[in-house]
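From the pipeline queue, job 12 of 40. The input is one protein chain; the requested action is below.

Action: predict structure.
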Amino acid sequence: MNDILLGLSGGVDSAAAAALLKEQGFTVTACFLLLTDDSIKEEENARALAEHLGIKLITADFRERFRENVSGYFIKEYLSGRTPNPCVRCNPTTKIQSLLDTADKYGIEKIATGHYALTEFSEKYGGTVLKASPSKKDQSYFLSALSPSQTERTIFPLGLFSTKEEVRAYAEKLSLPNAKKGDSQEICFIPEGNYQEYICKYSDYKPEAGNFLDNDGTVLGRHSGIINYTVGQRKGLGAFGEPRYVKRINAADNTVTLCKKDERFETEISVRDISFAVNTPPRGDFSALVKIRSTARAVPAEIEYSDGRMHIVFSERVIAPTPGQTAALYDGNIVIGSGIIE
């Protein structure tokens, strides 16, 4: 059986993925995931693409699942003084799982998306997600919380492309109508990009001024509400006679601790909510490469794993580890798993 269900968003990546799968001999059914009220507008684009590609399109409404697992989680984390990564959360709980649930409904075994990554069987780990090498667009970090059962049924056709420009050139060669469409914004459910306004609109939170502190607890000034800040931030803090950066955010007492430039670095972090992406994960103490944000370089580290938590000691200092962000673990190019930075 070469049937496959592809998540078709209306963007150039998923459209190119559909065309590649057809070239590889798959019988492609497209699925538009309705995840937010705003995404209804994109359904028309997806339908036009499906017609151009000559594939069937079905629409699956998972808005309630998205609100529960992604946008609601996003708000809750920010109000707790953390900076969440909604994409890492969305893929295993909503996007990939919703495609799998829809595939099951139609008797389809495999699914695909337009992510820049690879899947491969490993003798050591079984089905795995790999970095899209040597792609500058690698998105394996955002897939680091997938379960092995999700990975084993998923294909990422774009993993062998090196750049977005190559994908656009491929789309133009096929005369895809969205070949020159711009990239989507970073947070798909906040079209205007103002996450502070979004949080205030969909919660009871009202920004409350509080104290800026230094590492010794001395009051440096006043902030405008904890949701306006994230660890490592420099801009928008005010003047203190020298550059200052956000070091910690404490929701309980509504304070934001600032530090000097050379105080942003850490060599150790604690990680909770561990999810392993491989069937035979490491246990106890082990070594791995660790990325603490999507744009960061993976750094060698020694890891102690016990009682569902990890203590990670890096081989070098890392800049501004941010509570709420994901620490993704790699064995070479293979994604081992991930957890949330405490």
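Job complete. Residues 86-105 form the longest helix (20 residues).
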